[in-house]
Amino acid sequence: MPSWLIIVLAVIALLAIGGAYARSRQLARSRPAFDASLEHVNRDLAAAAALDRGWDRDTLEDAARRIYADERGAAPGELVLVEVLDRPGTDQDKAVFRVDGAERFTVGRRGGEWVHESLE
Question: What digits encode the pLDDT tens for the residues 70-86?
């Protein structure tokens, strides 16, 4: 094998390795900003879906706070709507909240009233 070919292959290999390393570092630096932006978009989307489906956001959040306090014995701090599940009929509707940035809290509708579904 000619020596010039070995040099060209070595340069290409070094460029590929260097490019992969630089890209992984760039992704690591931009990941927190991307995650924060994605979380914001998800919250906005869940809120828009709740409004679009005729759900009263204040009533929903008040019910979720009351139900959470009944389950845990204390009111939640931060309560963020993250998902809306609107299935056919009203008794299949669910709303998923993130409580204090950690727990997932789900309420569902039964007979027109919001009730506890799950707390993870």
Answer: 988 888 888 888 888 87
